[in-house]
Amino acid sequence: MSKLRRFSLWRASAPVALLCAGLLFATSATNARGTDLRPSRNTTLAGLVEEQSRRSASLTRQHAALTQDIEKLQAQQGSIEPKLAKQLKDLSDEVGTTPVTGAGLTVTLKDAPPEVVKDNPDVDADWLVIHQQDIQAVVNALWVGGADAISIQNHRVISTTGIKCVGNSVVLHGVPYLPPYRITAIGDRKKLQQALDDSKYIENLQDYVVRFQLGYEVKNESSIAMPAYEGTLELQSATVPGFEKSPTTSPSATG
User: Fold this and answer.
1) pTM (predicted TM-score)
2) 223 phi and psi angles, rounded to 5 deg
3) Could you tell me if 111 and 128 are in contact, meaning their C-beta atoms sit under 8 angstroms apart?
4) Cβ–Cβ < 8 Å for 183, 147
5) Region at 161 (left for phi over 0; alpha for psi -120 to 50; beta for the rest)
6) What is the per-residue pLDDT across 143-194, written as a single tens digit (0 to 9) for each?
7) What is the C-alpha separation between 21 and 19, in angstroms, rounded?
8) Is 80 exposed, middle or buried (0-12, 13-18, 19+ CB in 10 A)?
9) Phi, psi dihedral angles at 159 (to 5 degrees)
10) Could you tell me if 244 and 117 are in contact, meaning their C-beta atoms sit under 8 angstroms apart?
């Protein structure tokens, strides 16, 4: 009689246990949404950077396309005088909002390879990675060499472009990028190369290239198709929260 009772209890509890297991699996699948619940931290960070870069690039392209549509509609309506339209085109060429082509150079910068990092545990980690100063030094040297246009990671550099380090990535126009970093310049290749060779900062960088195998490569380009700058041209300045500037008042007259 006792055996029959235990068997009946098992038959009654088995479906309940299976139902609970099914609910747990369903909950895990819903929370994970088809992804690993415990992904590698490094993989997650790198993937996040790449995802945000792609998203920003997509939004930037949409912004540029809408801007071009507006300009075409303005031209069709004749709202811009021919003289003013030519002046606008000339300024666009100078600012960098029109694509350009020509010969030039591409400089590629890379962090030290993993084996070098592993074999030098006592070396300052900052010595083994490319920093914003390295990218800025290359860009500045190329401007000195008479570059007509420059791009970083295939994004056009203009006068308001800022290059900042955030962790192991470099932020350009608010978008993070991971190495390798490719800086391309259109101009006289001999003059551009000479400017790179004359740069004291790049000369110092070359020491780390030799000691720790940082990547520094210069490649001649016979034909470069450089895109136009597609971001906003509005200037923004920092403000203090809650602080409002008082209106300018003219001094009272005294007599």
Assistant:
1) 0.62
2) -150, 120
3) yes
4) no
5) beta
6) 999 999 999 999 899 888 888 887 778 888 778 888 999 999 999 999 999 9
7) 5
8) middle
9) -65, -25
10) no
